[in-house]
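pasting input
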Amino acid sequence: MKHVLIVEDEKKLADVLIAYLNQNQFKVTHFESGSDVVDWVKTNQPNIILLDLMLPDVNGKDLCKEIRQFSMVPIIMVTAMIDEIDRLIGLELGADDYVCKPFSPKEVVARVKAVLRRSEGGLNHGEVYDAFEVNDQTYTIKLHRDRLDLTPVEFRLLKMFLQSPGRVFNRDQILNNIFEDGRIVLDRTVDTHVKNLRHKLKTASPEHDYIRSVYGIGYSFEL
Amino acid sequence: MKHVLIVEDEKKLADVLIAYLNQNQFKVTHFESGSDVVDWVKTNQPNIILLDLMLPDVNGKDLCKEIRQFSMVPIIMVTAMIDEIDRLIGLELGADDYVCKPFSPKEVVARVKAVLRRSEGGLNHGEVYDAFEVNDQTYTIKLHRDRLDLTPVEFRLLKMFLQSPGRVFNRDQILNNIFEDGRIVLDRTVDTHVKNLRHKLKTASPEHDYIRSVYGIGYSFEL
DNA sequence: GTCCAAATTATAAATTCATTATTACAGTTT
DNA sequence: AAACTGTAATAATGAATTTATAATTTGGAC
């Protein structure tokens, strides 16, 4: 569960935010002033900080800078009606985003999620289907974390299967899916590629029989 | 020199931005529609993208998502007077910031700089990737503290690989990355440079096989 | 149900085709 | 001159397809 630290002196505002964040499965800690924040962050390491620029005791910008001295934790600035320059300075300080008051709590929650997603670098280079993981960037497919060593044709074949598990493809459909250009090859070619793919799948996962032959029609992939 | 891609159909607006960015030492490429953007980004890898949400042909949001499938390149959404929901969706899509029209070019330049600083400030302090250390000042790369004696082409090639370990580049992409100018050379040239680089890497670290040939596609670098 | 023939699929080996590695050399640049 | 880059030619490797043969499935006849 992600942990959000809110540093905000307006109690009402903070309470609304806390309610919304809690409803979105965030754990929230709230400070009404900035004095103890640095120490707390050092020991508790929240996943993200919502930081009000206008605090009673310390200056929000300085606090942001100070936190940046020792942590890359994402920080979203919360601030009342600032002019353009201030916005930019906020970002120059090393903040990751900002929201202006008045804001809707929904907006803030969305920003928090967006910044978290960004900072986690959770980049989806492909898709996950059950135990399979297709990565177009690296041209690899993993089965249970092990990389299958596939040829280009096998890669495209398996990817096609994974995208439509359970569907029965006839050989023409398979060939059309695998070759962008409309080259013509024999049906037996499909059999051979299926055989080779089966072999590689079996060595990676001996107990499982993924590719089903459908007599008179073609093949289907059963996850 | 940082390379900015602008995807914007209002030509006047784009021209102003281009002028400002050029004045700030940015290299700029401009697309007036979204249709060819994805392919271009794949081969040219800009440092940041300014993306208009309202394009004549494709939907800006979809384009953003599509780019996020294969690249972490920072994206700033540019958009006319959107309501709150649209903003949020923009960020949920994986965009890094947004600006609303009408905007001042100065603001945009500042945002670009801020986002670039942010996205670079992340993990790789300076330019250390695993056992490799890239120094742009001296045009050298160290492996395990030993300086590799690389030619300019080899330097850019290795740097490109290091910036996207695991990613499979085809030969066009490699050539576009290595030569800023659009000169055209043969695919076989890539093979030769890869061979030479492999040799130098091997003499520096005999046990390790860094560059993987991906049959039918190209090469990738495995740290 | 069992048996058989026809149709279909599986497999392995052989062949063709495509891609990559390597070498040598020529044109440039420094 | 020495180093770098690009090209061309050739060798080596790897993949795709075809071919040939064996194994399996199916449906009908008994």
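fyi Residues 2-121 of chain B form a domain with the Rossmann fold fold (CATH 3.40.50.2300).
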